[in-house]
Amino acid sequence: MDKGGWNALAAWRDRRMGERGDLWHRAIIDPTLLSVLGQVRGLRILDLGCGNGYLTRRWARLGAAESVGVDASTASLRFARRRERNHPSGARFLHGNAARLPEFEDGRFDRVVAHMSLMDIEDGAGAIREAGRVLAPQGRFVFSISHPCFDIDVRSVWVVERHLNESTVSRKVTGYRKERTVRIPWDISGKRTAYTLAYHRPLSVYLRYLRESGFAVIRMEEPSPRREAIRKSPQGPFMVEIPLHLIVEAVHRPLPVRSAPSRVSSPASRTTGRTPGAVARRSGSRGRKRGSDSRRRGSTPGS
Ligand SMILES: C[S@@+](CC[C@H](N)C(=O)[O-])C[C@H]1O[C@@H](n2cnc3c(N)ncnc32)[C@H](O)[C@@H]1O
User: Fold this and answer.
1) Which residues line ligand 1 (CB under 6 A)?
2) Does some domain include residue 163?
């Protein structure tokens, strides 16, 4: 089922992610994602495309009523389960396709999270639909993706222009509107290159899928790098200006907006009717050589 090619990266990723995430997760994406997600104690959480499950396990340790990770890569799940065996947290891991989750009944979860996985899931519409189906009314779907406006696989590059002591950083993007499948090269051993599949979708496409699945977006964040990332990643200082990641929080089947009850108080309130109330560098995210910087996946040395 691992059509995306993630089995070949599983051991390498597990080493890098460990229990805390690699540099890019730890010092760029995760702090914002975790703050958007908020308290997890007592919640039932589904982690779509969980990889080695370090976050699934974290939520179980933080007192989630249930924390389940699903991934299409059997090799990634082996690492997740091995970690769980060695240091039990109470998390569970299932092999499956995020776009088809027959093992879960409707309304089963309070939160669905897809952390840096939605752009790697072929059937993005299906995954969002399933997230909606398995969420209880008012449940939240929180996901992070490579920023569809600024980090479009090999079609986005940093442009750094220097004039005396001044430098201007911009991001050159081509082919934004075109949905497409891309093969991402990963130099995982210094000698060997593995490939995964990723799926670029313009922002409006994500928004359409969300709306069609009964979601309303209530928050968007574009994480800034922390000091550690600015220091250790060559792209860190650039990301202070231009974000390479996007985090979205959407609520499922939001309550209809009701107008406030009219007050039969003073004549004044009745009459007003108010209610209370020049050096272009190819970079970015994907397909880096080891030792150079990486996208979200961060192959920065020392990460
Ligand atoms: C970049 S990794 C992110 C893993 C993890 N969330 C993290 O942040 O470390 C993307 C993951 O999505 C998984 N994936 C891709 N397509 C999937 C699908 N259709 N269903 C479930 N998981 C999928 C891959 O196997 C891979 O583990």
Assistant:
1) 4, 6, 17, 49-51, 70-73, 76, 97-99, 115-117, 120-121
2) no
Query: Separation of 101 CA from ligand 1 center, angstroms?
Result: 15
**CATH number of 209's domain:** 3.40.50.150
Write out the residue range of the structural domain in which residue 127 sits: 6-147+202-231+238-254
DSSP 134-185: HEEEEEEEEEEEE-TTT--GGGEEEEEEEETTEEEEEEEE--TT--EEEEEE
Please give the tally of structural domains in the chain.
Answer: 1
3-class secondary-structure state, position 103: coil
Q: What is the mean pLDDT of each run of 10 residues along the chain (303 residues)?
A: 90 96 97 98 98 98 98 98 98 98 96 98 98 96 98 92 91 96 88 92 98 97 97 95 98 77 48 34 44 36 29
46 falls within a domain: yes
Partnered with residue 294 across adjacent β-strands are none
Of 2, 6, 143, the one to substitute when testing ligand 1's pocket (max ligand atoms within 8 A of C-beta) is 6
Question: What's the whole-model pTM score?
Answer: 0.87
Q: Could you write out the DSSP letters of every residue in 36-96?
A: HH---TT-EEEEET-TT-HHHHHHHHTT-SEEEEEES-HHHHHHHHHHHHHS--S-EEEE-
Q: Does residue 177 belong to any structural domain of this protein?
A: no
